[in-house]
Design brief:
- With about 270 residues, this protein is an alpha+beta fold.
- Helices cover about 40% and strands about 15% of the residues.
- A hairpin with a 2-residue loop joins β6 and β7.
């Protein structure tokens, strides 16, 4: 003590206080949580924004907020609400969301009619129910039945199964839209084929398509009608008995997405 006074040394109450006096730098405030942080002269010199943070988490929060503020503001999608909302939301509340999702009957009808007409324009025929799962349920809500929606779009529906015949592009008469799709697929790929060829030893029963010695059947109602299912099984037995190559096509191979390229890949040249 006397020696410190004699030589004019600084005196401290504890090693901690002595250590603090030797520190060089400044005390700064964290921009996010307002905690005090000590920064050395080197840290102060390196800083380009003069912003300081106590840890990486606070720095990330601050910088993310800056980026978010630079983006255009987002508002509730409800037409009568101007509440600003976070960018990952659509509505400011469940009330606004529920109200905005309600559709008027007229707008629903217009949407269904537009999609039916668009399909007809692209494919040259009206769609079947299995091709348009989404619009089909909306058509039921708006018009009551699918056929009424078809009529509203300006087309003539086919209410009775197999009542109408369809003409394929090569002139073949087909019993259904599905058969016409298959016929047009074969024709577009230059595959010679025949329609309604009788099974051996069973002249009253015909096959939908025959390519060389390969029989192609569309089993569209199997499992839905007992007699249809019985005849489908009989065709399988006849094919096996006479060693005929039989390719079976089911509705999922055509609707809602055409998968004939995979099912009939052996005919693609």
């Amino acid at each position: 003590m006397r020696e410190a006074v004699k030589f004019g040394w600084n005196q401290y109450c504890s090693p901690d206080c002595q250590f603090k006096t030797r520190l060089s730098g400044e005390s700064k405030i964290c921009q996010t949580c307002s905690k005090k942080v000590w920064r050395t002269p080197k840290d102060l010199k390196k800083s380009q924004t003069n912003r300081f943070f106590c840890n990486h988490s606070c720095a990330a929060i601050f910088n993310n907020n800056l980026r978010s503020e630079a983006l255009p503001k987002k508002f509730c999608k409800h037409p009568d609400c101007d509440e600003q909302i976070p960018r990952d939301q659509l509505y400011c509340s469940q009330i606004c969301g529920t109200f905005s999702r309600k559709r008027t009957l007229e707008s629903l009808k217009k949407e269904v009619i537009m999609k039916i007409r668009k399909f007809e324009k692209l494919n040259g025929r009206i769609p079947v129910k299995k091709e348009m799962y989404g619009p089909y349920s909306k058509a039921r809500d708006a018009f009551g039945t699918w056929n009424k929606a078809i009529k509203a779009a300006g087309y003539k529906p086919n209410p009775v199964m197999f009542a109408n015949k369809y003409i394929a592009k090569d002139g073949h008469v087909c019993d259904s839209v599905a058969e016409m799709i298959i016929d047009d697929w074969l024709n577009s790929r230059g595959v010679p084929h025949q329609r309604s060829i009788p099974y051996p030893d069973f002249k009253k029963m015909t096959c939908d398509f025959v390519v060389n010695k390969t029989f192609i059947e569309f089993f569209g109602l199997e499992g839905e009608l007992k007699e249809y299912t019985r005849l489908s099984n009989l065709k399988r037995k006849l094919s096996k008995k006479h060693k005929l190559g039989l390719i079976e096509i089911k509705p999922p191979h055509l609707f809602p997405k055409n998968k004939l390229d995979q099912v009939l890949s052996s005919f693609i040249r």
